[in-house]
Each structure stands twice: as structure tokens, then as C-alpha cells.
Design a protein that fits this description.
The complex is a heterodimer of chains A (633) and B (351). By secondary structure, chain A is of the alpha/beta class. Chain A contains 22 helices and 23 strands. The chains are: A alpha/beta (633), B alpha/beta (351). Bound molecules: flavin-adenine dinucleotide, thiamine diphosphate (TPP), iron/sulfur cluster (4 copies) and magnesium ion (MG).
Chain lengths: 633, 351
């Protein structure tokens, strides 16, 4: 058993026990079964790959570069942050208060601590604190390009068209039925959510670029408009018709109102009062604005009547919260049966109280209930209506009497007529109207410069390393466990004094400082170079959220089953590297909950991981990307 | 050295063990070792093993000497006890601690320099005493902390970073252990947690001194071409003599369902170590056979890994010395030290 005796001093140099350079290599079994179809290495040069990792940007219809503007706010660069927003979403101050914020449910932070970054509120911070922007707006050429565009309606969709095309030398004539611009942003969104000054400012910025706006000019014939020989016509008339509820008693009183019409009358000062007892039918966002407006016009007992249980409400969670904070009652499982009108006087309404099965698919009536009311507001949806478009102009109409419009180009079947915003595919929201505007502007520019509207430039991208030195990154990679900051509200006495007292007060400096730190910088990507990896496992060991795995390759389902932590969110991509040099295994990364802390890169001895900032370049009408297309064409 | 603390964010599916603790609760301070050091992977394996067996942090004692490897205890289980001894002196200190308090789980972490050079004598006697502890040698063939001089485990012919070949014969801790009566001998690789974690769990369950020699490359001073302790060399020469499953005591019943070629050893606490996929004729309880096998394979240049030798029949230091069941640390002082009068009385007996 005494090994040392085998190694005599004399024999050592000649016959060492281990002659490493003559030894035979152990074959490494990659263990990939013959039938498995191993995944191909992920192509990170496809702009969509990293774009999808920036959940908020991917979720934003206009692809606003959220993490970049949040960093700018963190640095106190409010004007820069505002302008970055403006590039994609055009109305940062308006949207910072009213956006439907699809980015927030998408936000990665929500998957970690349940609450997304307050992206929308931070946008408002940038707008509230920005400086002068006049010198940063695009110059409007004195010499026009000779092309004339007509926009019907002065809502956010049309305004975006003007914003994108005026700097290119187009003339834009905008016809608006009302006496003021802004569309539903002015006529329907109440001023306690969106102050008039904010709206005027951002709409004014665009009008001042030189829009030829014609107020009080409803277009009542498309045929006549087409005769004016515009190079292109953009229809941005919205979805102007509120849905009616044609049940017994509907026309026996004047105290039953269509929600969007009623809000418009309030906005323009035609209605200043409402009865004490108000029933709102429907539980979408319009209903929330109706009930809260009623509260300010004399309503004291306001009930929002919902057909279905909570969880099936259309209204955004924060709008429901705000309404309930103001003492509004939301009653569930009530289906309107009839209006009760006696001698021309509205007494109230009868409802069927329903009981739903699980999933709220089928219901049965439990009882009939009477609720007294002085006024009833119908807020059960909006419809499109195009009575002014003659049907023999070559503009085809399809299902539900909606125009046939391309979802990519927004072109109708009449090549120089385009639709966008709520007019194109039914009611959506402001940010979608803006995105439609951008896309339609590209189409109009193509159309006017003789390029096919279907020729659209893909997004381009750039990756820039963030490494500044050892353990030094040019972004803040610390994880801040702070909770989402709560918006402060005007108190419940003050806010009801006048209709236009803004309820949300905006974030304080301290709240802003905390909230910006919650952002995970999802645009700073973990960029991998397989050839450098020595499979030391350092990155795998350090990753706080177990994103990383070195494993033999396999098909996706198989590989997802063998990760360091289960891939629970199948909507998130699995990154797969090329074969690693030493064992021919692959590096896999579940992008789902990476917090972009950069520790993998810090602990990697060979810089196989690097943190690189992903920048997405989006094409707009006439932007360099589009111009390069022009030179090619 | 990373500038930030590890984010408190965790994966949404994070599991809890029998104590309700997550694996993150078994972490220590942020490592200050070089990025990519094998020792950090060993730390991760220890964290996993301790979490999986639901070890109570306040019942763990982390022991070490001097070296990069000996810094490791700072990087796992913040809530445990610990002692960082002088260079090579961890075995006697661990022996003393164990003598005083047999109830703690002792995890010793050392390096090839700490254990096979300056501390070799101490190591041998701790092995002979069968002090109940897990003794991990993070073996990288160099003195990492003092910038990469060859250690006593460097193979003959292995080249330093400057290109000089080592000429002195290496000390192999496993073969050394076999020659002096060790009761638990394993070798593994920092880059192979699938193998290392079950070995560590078995080592903690072992009744005596469990030596785990882990090839743990020094990425800064010994990971170049020509080194026999690099990641690449280890991968190219590692063979798994045994594969082991560790079956904790509570699930013992399952361990009886055995296939052919599977050897099981029931540990003192009722848990079972199952050897699967052992080479034909290999018996991890037969010291002579293991010695022969190691000689054969290693003369081919292969690095034999796995739980290589296990003897659960020998009593540990306390059993050999018939100490009381109760930890001495909990025996009242008056009883441990009956006083001068009692000493006089005893001495009188010998006069
Ligand atoms: C009560 C309410 C609250 C809302 N709150 C929000 C919110 O908080 N956040 C959000 O993102 N979205 C909200 N929306 C939705 C949002 O306002 C719309 O999706 C958006 O304004 C649509 O923009 P648009 O440009 O397509 O059309 P619109 O804003 O509807 O503008 C259309 C314009 O065209 C004019 N017009 C119509 N027909 C003609 C014609 N024949 N000739 C000339 N002019 C015409 C109209 O007068 C109007 O000014 C809300 C909607 C309602 C009803
Ligand atoms: C008594 C004494 N002698 C020498 C040293 C210098 N010294 C510090 S660490 C070390 C060797 C460590 O090598 P090893 O145990 O292999 O640890 P590694 O750094 O390689 O992990 C030496 C010789 C010391 N600290 N104390
Ligand atoms: S954490 Fe920041 S970058 Fe990531 S999705 Fe949320 S807002 Fe966007
Ligand atoms: S940046 Fe790296 S270490 Fe940090 S969470 Fe993402 S993958 Fe893990
Ligand atoms: S830390 Fe770097 S070298 Fe080590 S496994 Fe990760 S990517 Fe590979
Ligand atoms: S010098 Fe070597 S052993 Fe020490 S921390 Fe660095 S890599 Fe590890
Ligand atoms: Mg060493």
C-alpha cells in the first residue's frame, strides 16, 4: 500500500508516473441522442431577438425606448428624455397621464416582484420637468415638396401624420368637425385626468409646424374631398358613435345619455349638472370617466352597473381604483332590463341579477331588481360610422361595414386613401393611434415618392459594450429592491371643487429617484461569445435568478426541461449558443427573468459574456433609414 | 472582484427545503476570488448540498487554513460558525473543535498547498483519528494565493505559466488516505456538480473523516496549455470510476430496489450511498482493489473521479475514545473540571 516506495528518486525523471503529454484522451460524450434535433444557435443579429428582451419596448405599440429614457430621467436629463419619447410616441405629456400603458403588464420587473416599473408616470416626470424644446424640433422647410395631404379629423392619428410629414416639406390640410383640435383627447378625456394646458401645448407643437387646420369643417362627402386633388387623403375620424341600449323606456325621457356624447357636452361646457342618483351602464374606461365626471357635476349616489364579475371588466385596474377612491360603487352581475319612466320622468331602471358559471360564460337570472336613478349614462362601447364616404369611390367596405384597410400599410383599396387610429380597425387608444399615424405616414411618403407602400424597412439595431473597466459598467447594474412608488392624489375635498382640478399630482423628486432605480435596464443585453467559454461555471453559479445552463443540446422542449430553473414563461425566448469548445455542449439562457445585473459578465474570466446596450432603430417617414431606401430605389 | 452585491431578486419558481429555506439562504458573502476560479464552483456545490440536506446553518462549523481555497468558507452559509486557522493548521483545530462539540457538522476547506505541504502532518493525523468532518481539498496544483508556485500536488511534467516543468513527484491525497486508513475518499471536479453534490452529501453523512479531493482549476495561474490541472486537461482525462446517488435516511426504503451492478452502503445515520455504473469488479469497500484500480488507470494518465473508497465500519474519534454522547461543550464546567481538590485526590491515588 505504500505508494511512495514505487517512486524512487532515481527513476523519477525517466519514468514519471504521469506523463501527461503522452496520455490518451478520454472521449467526451456530448450525450446527444441520435434522434434529437438540436437547436440552432440563436441569431442575435435579428433585431427582434433582443427587442423582445426589452419587454416594455416590445409591448409598446410605438416601441418607445423606455429604459433609455428612464436612465436619462435618473441623470436629470428631462428634456432629453422628453425628446426621446417624442420621437416614438409624439405626445409624452399627454401619454404620461393617460396612456393605456400596455408596456406595464409586459414589464419584466412585474415578473420579479409583482409590480411593474411605473413607466407611464416616469414619462410624465420627463414632461413635467423638461426645458425648452423649440430648438430641438425638426426644421420645417420653407420650400415645400409640392405634395398636398388632406387629413380628416384632428385626433392623435391625424396629428401624427402632420408631425411626420411636415418636416419633409408636405402641405397638410386638416379638416375638423369641432372648433378645437385633439379628437377624443379633448372632447372625451376629462380635464381632471388631462389638463387642457397639457393638451394645448403638445397639440400646439404640431399645429405650429404649419398645419392648415380648418375647424368647424365636417367632411360630409369623400367624393367632394377627392375632387380637391390631394396627393393623399388620411382618414383619422375615430369611432365617433356611442352604442345605444334600445330597451323599453329608452326614448320616453331626456335623462338617458350616450356616454361619449355626454362627456363631449361636458368638455365644451354645454352640460354643467347631473342628478344626484346616477347609474352608469358598462364598466369600461368610458364608464369610469362618466362616473367620475358625474361625481363632479352633482352626483352623490353613483353606481356603475356591470354585467359580469370583476376580472372581466374592460376598465384598466388603475381607473377602477381611482373611481372607487372617489366613492363610486361598482355593482356586478346586473343586466339592464328596462328603463322605468313615469309621466315622462325617469324613475330608475330594472335589472336582471345574474349568476354566472365559472369563467363567466353562461348566466342565469336570479331575480329582477329595481334601482332608482335621476340620470342614466350609457357607456357600453363605441362604433365606427362612415356615412360620409360614398360607396362607389373604390373604397371597399367589408365586415361590420368597416373599410378594408391593410394592417401593415394602412392603405385602403383606393391607393391614395389611408385610414388610421380608431377609424381603421375600431376603438383602441392614443398610443395605437400614434403608431398607426407613423406607419401611414411612411406609406404616404412612399406613395408620393413613387415607391410601393409595401416596401418597408425592417428595424435595424446596434450593440455597444457597456464595459468601462474591471467591475465598471456604464449603466447602474445594482438591483434596487424598492417597491413601486404610489402616485399622490389631490385630496378628496379639493379635487371636487372644480371640474378641471388634476387628480394625480405626479411623482416627487424622491419618488422619481426611487422609481427609476427599479428599472432593470433590459436593453443592456448579455452578449455571449461561445468560442471564449472555458466552461468554468462561474456565470451559472453567480446568476441570482438561475438564467443560465450549460447542457448538451436538444430540441426546445427537451432543453427547456433541463435548465437550471424551470422555464415557466414559454413566451420568453431561450437563447442557445454555438457549441462550446471544450465539451461541445451549449450555453442556454432563459431570457425570462434576467435582471441584467451583469454579474455573469463580471464573473466570466474570459469575457465570453459581455453586457452590451441594444439600440433599436425604427424607421419613420423620411428618416435616414427610409432615405437609404430612396437611394436604392 | 465584483462591485455590487448579488441582487436579492430570485427566480419565481424558487424552492424551499424542509426548513423552509431557499438555496439563496445558504449563500455567503460575495466571492473575492478571481473570476472563473474553480473554488467558486465548489462553493456553489457546497451551497447546493447543504440546502438539499436541509442543514441548519447554526449547526455548521466552517474550518479552513490559508490560501484562496481557504477563503471559501466566507462565501457560503453566512449564519454558520467558522474558524480560519494559520496555514496548514486547520486539521488540529477542527479536531479540537470536534472533540469539544460533536454535535456540529464540520466542513473543512483547504488547498493542495495548505493540506499537502505545510499541513500534511496534521492532515494525516486527522485522517488516522477519523475525526468526523468533511474535508475538501480544492486542488489546483499551485499556491494560488501566493501567485502560482507549484504545490505538492503538481504532476511531474506539468508546466508553470512561465513554461517550466515540475520535476517533483506529486502527493495524491486519495492514495495517501488509502495508505493510512482513511474511511471515505472521493475525487471530483469543480466543473462537474452532478458528480460533486451527491459526493458532498455522502461525505457529510459519513461517520468519520471524509476526504474530498476536488480538482479546482486556478484560472489565473494554472489554466494554460501544458498544465495538468486546467479545465481542459481535467475534462480530457477525467474518468468516472463510480457514479453515486445519495439517498437520505428518510427515503431509505427506496434504496432497496436495486438493479444488478449496484452496490449500496448504508451510512451510520441510515442514509444510503448507492454506487451505480462502477467498472466491472470494482468494489468501493475493498481497499486493495481500489489501490490497484487507481494505479492502473492513473498510469494511463486518467484522472479517476467518483466516491472511490468508503468504510462505514470504523468508529470516529469519539467512539474510539469513548467520550460521552453529550457534547463536551454542554457538560457543566464543574463536571468537566472538578477542581484542584479532586486533582489532588487523583494524584494521591498514584503515589
Ligand atoms: C371617454 C374616453 C376616454 C378615453 N380615455 C383614454 C385614455 O385615457 N387613454 C387612451 O390612450 N385612450 C383613451 N381613449 C381612447 C382614445 O381617445 C382614442 O382611441 C383616440 O383618441 C383615437 O384617436 P383618433 O385620432 O383615431 O381619433 P379621435 O381622437 O376620435 O379623433 C377623431 C377626430 O375626427 C373628428 N371627425 C370625425 N368625423 C369627422 C368628419 N367627418 N369630418 C371632420 N372631422 C371629423 C372628430 O371630431 C375628432 O376630433 C378614451 C376614449 C374615450 C371615449
Ligand atoms: C506559515 C505560512 N507560510 C506561508 C504562507 C504563504 N502562503 C499563503 S497561501 C500559501 C499557499 C496556498 O496554497 P493552496 O493551499 O493550494 O491554496 P490556493 O491559493 O491554491 O487555493 C502560502 C504558501 C503563509 N500564509 N503562512
Ligand atoms: S424593467 Fe425597465 S427596461 Fe425592463 S421592461 Fe420594465 S421598464 Fe422596461
Ligand atoms: S445579467 Fe447575467 S447574472 Fe444577471 S440575471 Fe442576467 S444572466 Fe443572470
Ligand atoms: S463564466 Fe465565462 S468562461 Fe465561465 S462558463 Fe460562464 S461564460 Fe464560460
Ligand atoms: S489565484 Fe487562482 S486559486 Fe486564487 S482565486 Fe485566483 S484563480 Fe482562484
Ligand atoms: Mg492550491
Amino acid at each position: 500500500m505504500t505508494l511512495p516506495s514505487e517512486r524512487t528518486h532515481a527513476s523519477r525523471p525517466k519514468s514519471p508516473r504521469i506523463i501527461y503529454n503522452k496520455t490518451r484522451l478520454v472521449t467526451i460524450d456530448t450525450g446527444i441522442p441520435q434522434e434529437a434535433r438540436p437547436l440552432k444557435p440563436t441569431d442575435v443579429q435579428d433585431p427582434n431577438y433582443y427587442h423582445k428582451v426589452v419587454d416594455c419596448q416590445w409591448g409598446c405599440p410605438a416601441h418607445t425606448n423606455v429604459p433609455e429614457y428612464i436612465r436619462m430621467i435618473a441623470q436629470g436629463r428631462f428634456t432629453d428624455a422628453y425628446m426621446l419619447n417624442r420621437e416614438s410616441n409624439v405626445f409624452p405629456a399627454i401619454l404620461g397621464r393617460t396612456c393605456d400603458r400596455p408596456c406595464e403588464p409586459a414589464c419584466r420587473r412585474g415578473r420579479l416582484d409583482g409590480k411593474p416599473v411605473a413607466i407611464c408616470r416616469l414619462k410624465r416626470v420627463a414632461a413635467d420637468h423638461r426645458g425648452e424644446i423649440a430648438d430641438r424640433l425638426p426644421a420645417i422647410p420653407r420650400k415645400k415638396n409640392g405634395k398636398r395631404i388632406a387629413c380628416v379629423g384632428a385626433g392623435p392619428a391625424s396629428l401624427t401624420i402632420a408631425n411626420d410629414l411636415l418636416p419633409l416639406g408636405y402641405e397638410v390640410v386638416m379638416y375638423e368637425k369641432l372648433e378645437q383640435p385633439g379628437g377624443l383627447m379633448r372632447s372625451n378625456i376629462p380635464s381632471f385626468r388631462l389638463p387642457q394646458s397639457v393638451l394645448d401645448d403638445e397639440v400646439g407643437t404640431i399645429l405650429n409646424m404649419g398645419v392648415d387646420i380648418r375647424y368647424g369643417s365636417p367632411v360630409d362627402s369623400m367624393r367632394a374631398l377627392l375632387r380637391e386633388n390631394f396627393d393623399a387623403v388620411f382618414v383619422g375620424t375615430g369611432a365617433p358613435r356611442g352604442k345605444n341600449l334600445d330597451i323599453t323606456g329608452r326614448y320616453e325621457t331626456d335623462r338617458i345619455h350616450i356616454g361619449i356624447d355626454w362627456l363631449e357636452s361636458v368638455a365644451f361646457g354645454h352640460i354643467e349638472h347631473i342628478g344626484e342618483r346616477v347609474l352608469i351602464i358598462g364598466v369600461g374606461n368610458t364608464a369610469m370617466d362618466c362616473c367620475r365626471t358625474s361625481r363632479r357635476l352633482g352626483g352623490t349616489d353613483i353606481k356603475v352597473m356591470a354585467r359580469r364579475p370583476r376580472g372581466f371588466f374592460k376598465a384598466s385596474a388603475w381607473e377602477l381604483d381611482d373611481a372607487e377612491e372617489e366613492g363610486i360603487e361598482i355593482l356586478i352581475n346586473f343586466a339592464p332590463k328596462r328603463f322605468v319612466v313615469e309621466g315622462g320622468v325617469l324613475k330608475g331602471m330594472e335589472f336582471d341579477r345574474l349568476e354566472w358559471d365559472e369563467g363567466a360564460k353562461n348566466s342565469r337570472v336570479v331575480e329582477t331588481v329595481f334601482l332608482p336613478a335621476d340620470d342614466v349614462i350609457l357607456a357600453i362601447g363605441q362604433e365606427n360610422a362612415f356615412p360620409w364616404i360614398e360607396r362607389d369611390l373604390g373604397i371597399e367596405f367589408g365586415k361590420w361595414d368597416m373599410p378594408v384597410v391593410s394592417e401593415q400599410t394602412f392603405q385602403s383599396t383606393l391607393p391614395h386613401v389611408f385610414f388610421g387610429g380608431d377609424a381603421a380597425f375600431g376603438p383602441k387608444n392614443i398610443i395605437w393611434a400614434v403608431e398607426h399615424g407613423h406607419q401611414a405616414a411612411i406609406s404616404i411618403h412612399n406613395h408620393c415618392t413613387g415607391i410601393s407602400v409595401s416596401e418597408r424597412l425592417p428595424h435595424r439595431m446596434n450593440l455597444i459594450t457597456q464595459k468601462m473597466g474591471i467591475s465598471e459598467w456604464s449603466y447602474h447594474n445594482d438591483y434596487n429592491p424598492a417597491a413601486r412608488q404610489k402616485m399622490q392624489h389631490t385630496d378628496l375635498v379639493e379635487r371636487f371643487r372644480k371640474l378641471n382640478v388634476e387628480v394625480e399630482l405626479g411623482f416627487s423628486a424622491e419618488q422619481t429617484a426611487r422609481e427609476v432605480q427599479r428599472c432593470l435596464n433590459c436593453d443592456v443585453e448579455t452578449q455571449f461569445t461561445a468560442g471564449l467559454c472555458i466552461e468554468c461555471d462561474a456565470c451559472i453559479d453567480i446568476c441570482p435568478v438561475q438564467c443560465l445552463t450549460i447542457a448538451r443540446n436538444g430540441d426546445e422542449a427537451d432543453l427547456r426541461g433541463r435548465l437550471s430553473a424551470p422555464a415557466i414563461n414559454l413566451e420568453q425566448e431561450l437563447y442557445v449558443s454555438a457549441e462550446l469548445p471544450q465539451t461541445k455542449r451549449i450555453m442556454a439562457k432563459d431570457e425570462d427573468v434576467c435582471v441584467h445585473c451583469g454579474l455573469c459578465a463580471e464573473r466570466c474570466p474570459t469575457a465570453a459574456w459581455d453586457m452590451q446596450k441594444f439600440e433599436l432603430f425604427i424607421s419613420y417617414a423620411g428618416s435616414p433609414a427610409c432615405d437609404s431606401l430612396l437611394t436604392v430605389a | 472582484m465584483p462591485s455590487i452585491v448579488k441582487p436579492s431578486a430570485t427566480h419565481p419558481s424558487l424552492q424551499r427545503n424542509a426548513l423552509g429555506m431557499t438555496i439563496r439562504d445558504y449563500e455567503g458573502s460575495m466571492s473575492t476570488l478571481c473570476a472563473g476560479c474553480g473554488h467558486d464552483s465548489v462553493t456553489a456545490a457546497i451551497v447546493r448540498a447543504l440546502w438539499e440536506i436541509s442543514a441548519k446553518p447554526h449547526m455548521i462549523a466552517k474550518m479552513s487554513g490559508i490560501g484562496c481555497s481557504s477563503k471559501t468558507p466566507a462565501y457560503f452559509v453566512n449564519g454558520a460558525h467558522g474558524f480560519n486557522s494559520a496555514h496548514g493548521r486547520m486539521p488540529p483545530i477542527a479536531t479540537g473543535a470536534n472533540a469539544a462539540n460533536r454535535e456540529l457538522t464540520y466542513i473543512g476547506i483547504s488547498g493542495d498547498g495548505d493540506s499537502l505541504s505545510i499541513g500534511l502532518g496534521h492532515l494525516c493525523h486527522a485522517i488516522r483519528r477519523n475525526v468526523r468532518m468533511t474535508y475538501i481539498i480544492e486542488n489546483n496544483g499551485v499556491y494560488g494565493l501566493t501567485k502560482g508556485q507549484f504545490s505538492a500536488s503538481a504532476d511531474v511534467g506539468s508546466k508553470s505559466k512561465r513554461g517550466e516543468a515540475n520535476r517533483m513527484a506529486p502527493i495524491d491525497p486519495v492514495e495517501l488516505g488509502l495508505s493510512i486508513g482513511a474511511t471515505f475518499l472521493a475525487r471530483s471536479f469543480s466543473g462537474d456538480k452532478e458528480q460533486l453534490v451527491p459526493i458532498l452529501k455522502a461525505a457529510i453523512a459519513h461517520r468519520g473523516f471524509a476526504l474530498v479531493d476536488v480538482i479546482s482549476p486556478c484560472v489565473t495561474f494554472n489554466d494554460h496549455a501544458g498544465s495538468t490541472k486546467s479545465y481542459l486537461h481535467t475534462r480530457q482525462h477525467q474518468i468516472k470510476a463510480t457514479e453515486t446517488d445519495f439517498v437520505p435516511a428518510a427515503t431509505e426504503v427506496l434504496a432497496h430496489i436495486e438493479q444488478e451492478g449496484v452496490t449500496s452502503v448504508t451510512m451510520h445515520d441510515g442514509s444510503v450511498v448507492r454506487f451505480t455504473a462502477t467498472p466491472k469488479g470494482y468494489d468501493p469497500t475493498d481497499r486493495r482493489a481500489v489501490v490497484t484500480y487507481l494505479h492502473e488507470r492513473e498510469s494511463e494518465g486518467e484522472i479517476v473521479t467518483g466516491l472511490l473508497y468508503l468504510d462505514e465500519t470504523v468508529g470516529d474519534v469519539h467512539e474510539m475514545n469513548q467520550t460521552p454522547e453529550t457534547a463536551l461543550a454542554r457538560v457543566p464546567y464543574e463536571k468537566l473540571c472538578p477542581g484542584a481538590a479532586e486533582l489532588d485526590r487523583m494524584q494521591a491515588e498514584f503515589r
